[in-house]
Design goal:
77 residues; mainly alpha; 74% helix; 0% strand
């Protein structure tokens, strides 16, 4: 075995010590923080200047829906 095998085995064994519940909480937490960041973006940064002013021109809405769906899916799984 090469030194890289030993390093890889050490990393794998170390990561196996982390409970999956903690990993799920961290992953969903990162998505929730990203959702909060998206919601706090100013409307001027998420719409085109030449937009028609309709609700679907604001990219925050689509991004928020996508993030909410991901949060629900990863919370349930």
């Amino acid at each position: 075995m090469t030194p890289l095998h030993h390093i890889g085995n050490f990393v794998r064994e170390t990561l196996l010590l982390i409970p999956l519940g903690v990993v799920r909480i961290l992953f969903v937490g990162i998505l929730a923080l990203l959702l909060i960041w998206v919601l706090q973006l100013p409307k001027s940064e998420t719409t085109q200047p030449t937009g028609s002013g309709r609700w679907y021109d604001n990219l925050k809405i689509g991004a928020s829906i996508a993030l909410l769906i991901q949060i629900v899916i990863y919370s349930v799984l």
